[in-house]
Amino acid sequence: MALDKNGIAKRIAQELKDGFYVNLGIGIPTLVANYIPDGMEVILQSENGLLGIGPFPFEGEEDPDLINAGKQTITYTKGAAFFDSSTSFAMIRGGHVDLTVLGAFEVSERGDLSSWKIPGKMVKGMGGAMDLVASAKNIIVAMTHTDPKGNSKLLPSCTLPLTGIGCVKRIVTDLAVVDVTSNGFRLLERAPGVSVDEIISKTAAPLIVEGEVPEMRL
Question: Is 212 one of the catalytic residues?
């Protein structure tokens, strides 16, 4: 069975390391905040001016003055800091973010990212994504493997306007974990119950498969 959005977020949470400064993009990436392993200190940064984001609030406990870059209500952790947007982007552009998790419309086999514009459709826009992909030390994409029409989002080349070139290192979808290598996409893990053949059939770009591909452990 393909993962739901929370399953994707759970798998990405396994990529976190103690002491990491992490920026979570709009959409599926924001859910990663709910799955930080116990005992691990990860400092979540939001480009609208908060360092120390906590899990999403329970219903009835929302504070409308506390929001992330996607305008979702959030909580904050002990020792959190609030600041203006210019300070936030100084952190990002200065290379102080260890990991960025972003959603995407498309990713190419070279690690190019399209995440901000679909011609003719209303989307939320660039936001801080261009700064993040240019400055973060590591970029992981969280997305569904195919679009609503069933078309692959892992392509030989992106067809939509680019956010960044050669910036994506790893992709976690509802079907698989895929690494971007110098030789193209390499299948690392598969979602529980999903076959390698299904993943290959839903990936438009060539997919390197080496040996037995393990299931994700969630």
Answer: no
